[in-house]
UniProtKB/TrEMBL annotation:
Lignin degradation and detoxification of lignin-derived products. Belongs to the multicopper oxidase family. Its main location: secreted. The keyword Membrane does not apply. This is Laccase. Gene3D superfamilies: Cupredoxins - blue copper proteins. GO terms for biological process: lignin catabolic process. It comes from Artemisia annua. Residues 30-144, 157-306, 405-538 form the Plastocyanin-like domain. Its cofactor is Cu cation. One of its GO terms (molecular function) is copper ion binding.
Length: 556
């Protein structure tokens, strides 16, 4: 009797799972299209004629298939930022890392299942700078029968922060890569593709959200900007942070949030003010010394129904207000005690930041003091292959594509955030990967350097999220800093903003086989070589082994 009852329960359970998990089919056509911003017409690349692109709205446990047809003139891939893609790096998307690009006229269907993730993520192009306009929200709702760990909001609204150039972004990138100098900064920050009515020719298109007094609003804030950390605030309204990078947090209330490129932050807002119109505003948090940045302010309008007053601006922090950023990030914690890896198998130390390549003075040598700008991790400036992807080279054992000798520690120790000798300013170009055994517990210290300038760097790890067990300023000191690690309720993220002139310590278990890119999510720095990749080996049995490649994987 008990056996048949157990069998019946298990059948009911599997039936419940199959009943509620859905398969969503989407079609993305990537194309060039006319767009008008800041009184100018030009052509941008977008998806399905929408900018930002379509929102994928799914539930935890669902399967998703997105057929991407490339009708643009550029090679391209799509990355599903923050999705674990368990055993399935073939759907991850970074160009020449997990796949060769979808050529103009070609197509590829990304197939993946959402496994134990809910909240706000996003998708974007992962080929050169195309993500400047090729991006959209990925909203994962709780499974049927589950709910948010907070009262269900009356209104949900994606707030996608971006950057707008008055020129084709591929031309801006090409010019920078040709000259070796820093690229031109953007002409506007945007909210949902619009700069807002502080700009010329923009008030018609300004993003608006209409609410009733008393409404609770869930703002899903995504920083899709190419190169800029951003402050975000809503005039006269408090924001309660409830999740970051699609992981719930201890709730706390703040006037302003800072979101690094690649990061998402979910905030609750109550429409409890005098009915009126209030600006939601975003502007730069900029930390590199003497480096130009886009200092404009993007606005959208939160308007109470039938209000007609002039909108009020929030007070945003000053551009380099690191104290506000530190106070904000120190409040982000897991909701309760979490299982942080404590027995570390791989203790890695990665320096990161800028570098310069010496060159012959001329049109291709226009960085500071007759150099070309570069960037590196552990003094290796990462070079992507261009004839086969790293994942294919690894699984098919193709020689001469990469070497598995990425250094676990810097080749030379120095005063990382002090006065760095000029002899250490030139990195070495290479395609170096680091191998991890399946199931190994990994700690990485990410250490900023002051070559050219310290800067707050948003570092993203594909295929994983990780615990941020510590961060601080200056050089990491193991004997002093390890003792202060938070091993109780550290936050989990997929993108860490490493403090300017400081360090961050992250931990994760290497439980997802494949080739996974780790890089700065400031695309200028990625183009200069600020990246590396991990090979996570297969474990034991099918559940710990890479899936085979799909039959329509783009040909190299």
């Amino acid at each position: 009797m008990s056996i048949s009852r157990a069998l019946l329960l298990s059948l009911m359970f599997s039936f419940a799972l199959t009943t509620f998990a859905e398969t969503h089919n989407y079609a993305f056509t990537v194309q060039e299209q006319a767009a008008n911003r800041l009184c100018k017409n030009h052509r941008i690349v977008n998806v399905n004629g929408q900018f930002p692109g379509p929102t994928l709205d799914v539930q935890n446990g669902d399967s998703v298939a997105v057929k991407v047809t490339n009708a643009s003139p550029y090679n391209l891939t799509i990355h599903w930022h923050g999705l674990r893609q368990l055993r399935n790096p073939w759907a991850d998307g970074p160009e020449f890392v997990t796949q060769c690009p979808i050529r103009p006229g070609g197509s590829y269907t990304y197939k993946f299942t959402i496994q134990d993730q809910e909240g706000t993520l996003w998708w974007h192009a992962h080929s050169r700078w195309l993500r400047a306009t090729v991006y959209g929200a990925l909203v994962i709702r709780p499974k049927s029968g589950s709910s948010y760990p907070f009262p269900t909001p009356k209104v949900e609204f994606p707030v996608i922060l971006g950057e707008w150039w008055d020129r084709k972004v591929i031309s801006v990138l090409r010019q920078a890569l040709f000259s070796g100098a820093a690229p031109n900064i953007s002409d506007a920050i945007t909210i949902n593709g619009q700069p807002g009515d502080l700009f010329r020719c923009s008030s018609q298109g300004t993003t608006k959200l209409t609410v009733n007094k008393g409404d609770t609003v869930l703002l899903r804030v995504i920083n899709a900007a190419l190169n800029q950390q951003l402050f975000f605030s809503v005039a006269n309204h408090k924001l309660t942070v409830v999740a970051t990078d699609a992981i719930y947090t201890k709730q706390f209330t703040t006037n302003v949030i800072m979101v690094g490129p690649g990061q998402t932050t979910d905030v609750l807002l109550t429409a409890d003010q005098q009915p009126g119109r209030y600006y939601m505003a975003a502007r730069a948090y900029a930390t590199a010394q003497n480096a130009p940045f886009d200092n404009t302010t993007a606005t959208a309008i939160l308007e109470y129904k039938s209000a007609t007053t002039q909108p009020i601006l929030p007070q945003l922090p000053f551009y380099n207000d690191t104290n506000t950023v530190t106070a904000f990030s120190n409040q982000i914690k897991s909701p309760g005690k979490v299982a942080v890896p404590t027995k570390i198998d791989e203790n890695l130390f990665f320096t990161m930041g800028f570098g310069f390549f010496n060159c012959t003075p001329g049109p291709r040598c226009q960085g500071p003091n007759n150099t070309r700008f570069g960037a590196s991790m552990n003094n290796v400036s990462f070079v992507l292959p261009n004839r086969v992807s790293l994942l294919q080279a690894y699984t098919q054992k193709i020689p001469n594509v990469y070497t598995p000798d990425f250094p676990p520690v810097p080749p030379l120790q120095f005063d990382y955030t002090g006065n760095v000798p000029r002899g250490l300013w030139q990195p070495v170009k290479g395609t170096k990967l680091y191998k991890l055994k399946f199931g190994s517990s990994v700690q990485i210290i990410l250490q900023d350097t002051s070559i050219f300038s310290t800067e707050d760097h948003p570092v993203h790890l594909h295929g994983y999220h990780f615990y941020i067990v510590g961060q601080g300023f200056g050089n990491f000191n193991p004997s002093r800093d390890t003792a202060n690690f938070n091993l109780v309720d550290p936050p989990q993220r997929n993108t860490i903003d490493v403090p300017v002139g400081g360090w961050a310590a992250i931990r994760f278990v290497a439980d997802n086989p494949g080739v996974w890119l780790m890089h700065c999510h400031i695309d200028t720095h990625l183009a200069w070589g600020f990246a590396m990749a991990f090979i996570v080996e297969n474990g034991v049995g099918e559940s710990e082994t890479l899936l085979p490649p799909p039959s329509d994987l783009p040909k190299c």
